[in-house]
Amino acid sequence: MGESMSVPDLSVLAAGVAGFVLLPAGALVVLSARAGSTARERRLALFEALGASRAARGLFTLGEAAVPTFLGAVAATCVLLPAAMLDIPFPLVDFTLSAEDVRRCAAWLVLAGTVAVLVVLTASVLLHASGRRSSSAVRPTVVSKRLRAWWPWMFPFALLFAIRGPALAGDDLRLPVYALGVAAVLATLPAVVGALCGWLGIRLASVGRRLGLPGLLIAGRRMSAKPRATARFVTALIVMIGLVAQVQLWTGLLGENATLAKHTQDRIGSSLLSISPYADADRVQDFAAALPTETGLLLVRQSPPTAESPGRITLTGACTALHALNLPCKTSQVYATRSGLDPRVRELTRWSLAGGDGIVAVARGPVHGAKAQGEESLSLVAVSTSGEALSLPLFREMARTYLAVGASADPLGQSWLLGSNDLAAAAAWVRLLGLIGACLTVLAIGISALAEFLRFSRDIAPLSALTGGTAVNGSVVAWSLLFPALLAAALGSIISMWLTAPITVNGGAPVPGDTYVLLGVGAGACAVALCAWGWRSANRAALSWRPALD
Predict the structure, then answer these.
(1) What is the DSSP string of 11-80?
(2) For the whole model, what pTM was predicted?
(3) What is the pLDDT of residues 49-103, one digit of tens each?
(4) Please, which of 40, 173, 336, 523 could form a disulfide with 169 given CB 3.0 to 4.6 Å?
(5) Each residue's pLDDT tens digit, 456-487
(6) Of 360, 330, 355, 331, residue with least CA distance to 345
(7) Is 330 left (phi over 0), alpha (psi -120 to 50) or beta?
């Protein structure tokens, strides 16, 4: 008793944690496990040549990864220990973590830490699995640099699941399904970028050979030979773009409807009241008969939009009520966007048709005895024929007396205003989880970039001896690193815009289109800065490179 009626379920918080925190954490685990993998793969290849079995090689990798993994677990435990002794307030949100709650959940925390350690160790072993091509082959092989052929083809199915899945799921599963779809899209999009760069690399190498451009030739050969390295390099960048877009989407959506409701009530006040639920004929007749003077009653028949037709609302009632809204007392229809409509009609269509685009039909007739057809919904609106405010307490009492005990009579958008504090709290949680995810993603970008630049510098350092200088490094960097990063920034921004469709289709457009342009430009600028760092690293490695027996 006394709690807010719109506190989100645990599944909502779990979906937010999964999308904003666990997805960047998963990207960080994969990138960290593969960082500096060249030396490990060489050792595994040597062990395989010496006759080591797959299990033995796995145990070696497990032992190598165990030390940093357990050190990380110890560090995480040290960070959590104060929470078991002190109440810790969270930043950005009005929430304090109780030490008593932490101690009560100690067993779950130990289980979560154990699972995290097992996940990291398993990822380290699986991401370095190697083997011979066949049982009769004697040459050891390292991990293939090529992508699994089926992984990029999972992207269109993941995108379809993210866009259409929430509409097909029930109300309780809609948000988890959407979060799972977004995670699947962001997990498979880097593979698409890697595969596309690998396909383009062959063409670029051919062009470079014909035109005599060594940088383009080398970059094309490298891109076609190592699409998996390209996918790893752009993974964190794509996750960051998707994360920022989702934070902007949810914070904007949670605050926009409350703002629209406030503007609606500023325009029309309580001169139009929405009354629900619709009742049987006798109850509606009794309610209409008890209405005070200078009040009209209209039946609202709402039809959702379809692929063939836009959304539609039909207003049915007596001429007095229709004339109060400056509507003709005859069968007719107008587009909701037409100028000159009464502000109350415009606001009614805005809230009924999710944005105001659709058709407003008018018909003279009784308001009682109506039956919904198909996916239609029925409700009533009371309008003031004089334009003055209607009495909310009076109409709420009448609705509960004549229609149903749980009937309501509210101005348009009233529910959003009542829950505005809870919406502000939910938006604050989105910002907090997004900040945590952003920190993890920035760390992943740094590790990925550092590992890729070290690998890249070693690969092209011998070119300085062949070309007599480092001038070719700039061209190789531009095509091998900058081009995939810019491609990932562009595709990430476009896909992030598409991913907002399942949410914004029923709630307006809280994220302006130029936001995605700025997001893509910002990601592109970040890519340029990273690749400038890569160019500098490559030049330094080239100047210090000496032949070695490796």
Answers:
(1) HHHHHHHIIIIIHHHHHHHHHHHHTTHHHHHHHHHHHHHTT--HHHHHHHHHHHHHHHHHHHHHHHHHHH
(2) 0.64
(3) 888 888 888 888 888 888 989 999 999 999 889 999 999 888 888 788 899 999 9
(4) 173
(5) 777 777 776 666 666 777 788 788 888 888 88
(6) 360
(7) beta
